[in-house]
Structures are given as structure tokens and as C-alpha cells.
Amino acid sequence: MGxxxxxxxHFHTASKPLKEVDIxxxxxxxxxxxxxxxxxxxxxxxEFPAESNTNVTWAYVTFDKQNEVxxxxxTRLSIELKLPQSERNTYALKFEDRGNDGNGVFLTKExxxxxPQGFILILTASPECYAHNLLxxxxxxxxxxxxxxxxxxxLIALCGDISFAAQFMRIGGYDxxxxxxxxxxxxxxxxxxxxxxxxxxxxxxxxxxxYWSQVSDEFVSKIAENITGRAxxxxxxxxxxxxxxxxxxxxxxxxxxxxxxLREVPFESLIRHLEKSDERVILNVLTLMNSLYNKARDHVKxxxxxxxxxxxxxCAIEKSVxxxxxxxxxxxxQQLIIVQRxxxxxxxxxxxxxxxxxxxxxxxxxxxxxxxxxxxxxxNVVSEEKRTExxxxxxxxxxxxxxxxxxxxxxxxxxxYADSIAKISMENSMxxxxxxxxLPLVSVHLVQMLIDILHVVNEPEEGDRLMVLLFKSDxxxxxxxxxxxxxFHRTWREMHASEEDIKKVLAVVRKQINVCLLEKxxxxxxxxxxxxxxxxxxMKKIWEKERSAxxxxxxxxxxxxxxxxxxxxxxxxxxxxxxKNLLKNGYKFGKxxxxxxxxxxxxFWFWKLDANxxxxxxxxxxxxxxxxxxxxxxxxxIDIADIQRVVAGGEGDFPMSSSTKGKKNANxxxxxxxxxxxxxxxxxxxxxxxxxxxxxxxxxALIGVDKLxxxxxxxxxxxxxxxxxxxxxxxDHIPNSIEIPPLPTNFDWIPxxxxxxxxxxxxV
Length: 764
Prior knowledge:
It holds the Pfam family ELMO_CED12. The chain is of the alpha+beta class. The protein folds into 4 domains: 29-125, Ubiquitin-like (UB roll) (Roll); 130-348, Leucine-rich Repeat Variant; 350-373 and 384-549, no CATH class; 568-717, PH-domain like. Helix content is 50%, strand content 9%. The chain has 30 helices and 13 strands. The strands form 4 sheets. A 4-stranded mixed sheet has the order 2-1-4-3. Strands 5-6-7-8 form a 4-stranded antiparallel sheet. The radius of gyration is 46 Å and the shape is flat.
């Protein structure tokens, strides 16, 4: 037996197939490792005699996530790791470190289901031991600054855990932090103050332990000092925590605390913080500003809105928050949008107020609005035109909106832009066609337009979007209104409009401003630059492009494509009928003669189709004749039925004279008719491309060849588009398919002779 045979003797095939065995553990059982915390003794009480000679630092364990009692597991592990035992709660398990805080979350019955297969847990001191240890270290008066910083870092890392927070509160940890802040025990160390506040924010974030409405008034006042500048030192991290805490207290639904915050933190004290480059500060300042506005009483809200329009606020927003080249944080943008809505809501109040008759008359009588002399109008001599204009002005103003906002805007316009009004009035009065427009009435319409554009009354469904230019002007609404007045004046001239065209001009102005705002100009000046390029002639080009794009889109819908195919045969027949009519009118072609010179002795013949469309008739003619008598004796008649095909002669398709031995002339164009079974060739010479296409299309249609020239195809498409556009003129929306209604549930209305027949009614 050879070596191969000897080896093979030890292997054999199983007589029965092997059964697959699932060696996976049940879902509730997980295997992993537990590591002993090397800093365990640090957090145990001093009297606890922890063994120092143990070398066991790891244990491997199977954990039943559903049924095993955690205390039993911890006891089993402490024994396996040779730790001293105690009757009180000494040890606990933590998840492995998450993130860079150096601490994990304690394992509890609430989160035990999160333990994964192949876990690594840390056996460490219990939350109670951690709480006692850290609070004791915080209270130790001999702690140096460096040690305090380390202790606070450890505290912050643990404050996010609910188990630790509950124990820390139970032993008075919360109270101690409040005491430190209220008494200013760390007033000399901004860093320590900041860390205490960070820890407090994390501790207070746990539900059911302590609420912001329960803090003392002394605590609120102390935190407010960090914001208003009454504190000795400032730090961005300390400021961020202080702003966050004040905002939480303000929104804690405690009216006493809310009023205290409103007194301790004036709105104007926040503006200076917007100049900082730290985005955390800016975000929290804007958030608190919006909260202060929401909680303030009406008269205080008016003061806040005034502060939003003063130069310090605008400069801080422009130079720091919206500085050029800076990517705006999403959170900051959302808070700015809320500030923007606050400003717009103030305009809304004015827009919804109906002005009195005295207010209306006082504004209308302003001399500057009518371009009158310093003497003004005579009260007793008011022209009929002025009376009509006043009635129209009154009717427009008492609508809400624009209401009192229109009058206020016009008054501000007269106050701050008198020179612009004088210039517009002078140019308006100097028009040669005498087509003037009423500045007071148009101003009201422009205020209403601006209300619509800015969504002053109704917020857009998709939500407000940030308009940066509103934050870069002390009087944004007025400045935008002035831009609209100038734009209306320019567009009026460009349209050569008359009094009855006011609505048309207003519509164009609305389109102009909307198009330019889509480009998101950041300043009023940039908006004016954009409007300068969007003149009325330019807008007409834009509308033409939009109209063409809309028509092209409509023509590509499934329903229109189906209609196009339905209409195409009729249009093709129409084009071919036109071609046949051209053949009936006849055409003078040149003959292909056997001569060395095609220009010498050029001969012509006249071809036409008879009225019955059965015969082609041709006769010789001179170069000066435009037609020929079809009944002359020299006529050649060709039956349409005998024509085999027609070929459009391109360059090089016509043979020259026999002396050139069959070479083709590259300068002659025309068509060739092949007649009869042994075809006779008729060469019809012409350089007119339209005539060649028309005769080829017409003859092909007569002999039943389904072939169109490129020229004819283009004509068919052009006629189709015209027909489709005519049919779609009155349709705003073109459905892609027709909805077929469901079948009726009762068929009793069908006559008996039809109901008893074999005709069946089924769903489509």
C-alpha cells in the first residue's frame, strides 16, 4: 500500500448528512469583558481598605440583559477581581468612554439593553462614591487652583449622567454650586466660575431633579452681572453659560423670575456683545434678545423695536454677524430671521390701523407731493382733478393694509428725501406728452407692494428667509420705498405710460424688484445696481425667454405629445397639398444640353401638373418666358403612374456632354425623373433649393412615396407648433392624462334591449 493509499484510509464519507448547529447565543445573552478602573481607589472613602496587591484587572463574563440583577453581577465581578467587599453600595459598572470627556455612562436598569455583543465595561466606584468624593474635594478650602480646575473638569464629565446627578443632588451638591455662585466664592477665577456654570447647566438639564423656576433671586442677579458688565471680569465661555442660564430662567414659566430677568438684563445691554467674534456668544445673545421681546409687555416691546433700528445694533450686526466673507451659522441665521419678523410685526401694527380723516388730509395737502410753489394750494379753489385724486388717495389709504403705514412712510419720504421728490416732480411736470402720474396715489400703491414683497401681513408657507439688506439700513422700509418710487418713475418713462397705465407700470415694477431680490443683494445700494440693469426693455427680453421656456415645457408634456401625433397627418396632408398646388402652377427648369459650355445656348422647358393630378406636362420655352401653353403641339406628357422615382440632384449628380466621357458636373443642381420600366431620365436643372424640395415632395406624394424633404419637415413642425399653441392659449394647466370616472354601481338606466345583448361593460 502506497503512501497515498495509507493516508486515504483514515478518511471516509459520513453515512448521514450532518445537521447544522446554531452556536449563536440568545439575544438576551451577551459576552464581553469587564476592566477594572485603575483610578478606583481615588473615589472610594479613605477608611475603605482597598487591596493594592491584586494583579487581576480583567474579567470575562456572560451577561443576561433581561433577567440578571445588576447588583448580583457587580458583586460577582468584584469577587472575581479580588476587590474588598462591603455591605453598602460601593461599586458600579460604566460603559466604555464615549467621546473625549474621559468618562462613560453608568450602567443602570434603564440602559442595560444597550449593552452590545463583545462589550467592554468598566468596574468603578458607584455614583454615590463619585458624588461624595467630588463634593468633598470642592468644599476643601485648601484646594489649589490647579486642583480645583481638575476637580471641576471631572465634575463636568459626570454631570450628564442621571445616576450621578441624582446622588450629587441628594448629598447637597446642587446647593453648594448655587452657594459658590451667589456668594462669589470663585469671583477671582473666571475659569472656575465658567466651569461651575457649565456643570450646573448639565445638572439642571435632567428632568425631575430641580427646575430653573426654583433658583433664588440672588442667583439670578449674580448671573445677570456677567451679562450686563457689572462683573469684574469677562470671558466668552462664562458669558455663553450666563446667557444660556438667563434664557432658561426667563422661559421657566415663573412670572416672578421672568419680571426679575427683565429688570436685571435690559435689552440694550446685550447689543455690545454682538460685536464679539465668538459665534457661541452671538447665537446666545440673539436667542436671549428674542426671548426678552416675547416676554416683555407691549410698551417695552416698542422700546425693543426702537433699539433694533438704532445705529449700534445695526453696526454690530453688519460688522460682526454679517461681515463680508463669513459663512453664517445656521442657528444665528434662524435667530436673525426671528429678529427680522419682530421688525416686520411692528410695521404690521401700523399697516392694520385705519388713519383718521385729518391725518389723511394733512399728508395729501403736503406741497412737495404735488410739485407746487411755496404759496401752496388755495383752500377754496380745488380743481376737479385734485378732488378726484384726493378721493382715490383716501380710498387707497383706508384699506388695511396699507393703512397708517402708508401715511407714515410718505411723511418720512418728504422729511428725509425732499430733494429726490423735487427732482421727480420736476421731471414729471416737464413731460412733453403731458402724461403725469400722481405721486401721493402711486406712493400708497408702492407701500402696499412693499408690504406684499416683505410678507409683512402673511408669513410665507415655506417660512421667512433672511433678507440681509434689512439689517444694513437704519430705515430699511423707507429706503426700499424710495428705491421703488425711483424705479416707478424710470419705468413710467421707459413704457411711455399714460394715466390709465398705472396698474401696468406697477405690475412691471413688482416683477423688476422680485427678480432682483432673487439674487439676494446684501445692501440697498447693491439692489439699486441690479435694478439699473433690469430696465423695461430688459424685462421684456426676460418675459420672452420665460414665455418660450413655458411653451417648450408645455409642448413636451405627454398629453401634448399625443395631440401632436394626432394632428400630424392632417398637417402633413396640408403641406403636401401646398406642394401639389406649386406643381400645378408650373416651373421653368433648365435643360441639360451636350455642350462644353453650360452658359452658351442654355435651353429651358416649362413643367407643370395638370388639374387632375394624373399627368406631368412639359414644353420647351425661352429664357425670357415665365410660362408655356400646355396645349401646344410640342408638349411632352408623362403619366404620374409611369414615374418610378424622383431624385433630388445634388452636386456631381448630373452627367455632362458625351465629349467629357461621362464625367459629372459638380456645379449643376436639379431633379431627375425616372420614367418607365426601362427608365427614361429627365433632368430638370435649377439652383433654386426651394423649388427642388417642393417638386420632390409633390411628385413623391403623387406616386405614393412617404418621404418628406427637410424643408417640408420643418414646415410641418412649425405648423404643428402654431396649431398646438392656438389650442393651448386658454389652458393654464395641461394634464398628462385624463382621469376616467369609475363605473356606476347601478345599471338600471340601460335599456332592456341593450342590457340583454352580448355587449359587456367593463372597466377601462
